[in-house]
Design goal:
The chain has one helix and no strands. The chain is mainly α.
Length: 71
């Protein structure tokens, strides 16, 4: 968590000034349609397991909604 590994998405997803993956508001939606991010790679401040778990839950719900709307 102290060094989130975002190098895999450089040039593929928008990043913030802090180097984390940019998401839309409080959602987990990234700059690429159908791609969701969660956990330490989107949270430059707290980087705690409990926050990452909650973020993962949001990402799962966002992905589920995306899949339902884009059959």
């Amino acid at each position: 968590g102290n060094d989130p590994r975002t190098h895999l998405v450089h040039g593929k997803l928008d990043l913030t000034e802090e180097g984390t993956i940019a998401v839309e508001g409080r959602s987990s939606r990234t700059s690429a349609s159908g791609v969701f991010a969660a956990g330490d790679v989107v949270d430059p401040t707290y980087r705690q397991a409990i926050n990452a778990a909650a973020s993962g839950c949001r990402a799962a719900m966002d992905a589920e909604k995306y899949l339902a709307e884009n059959k």
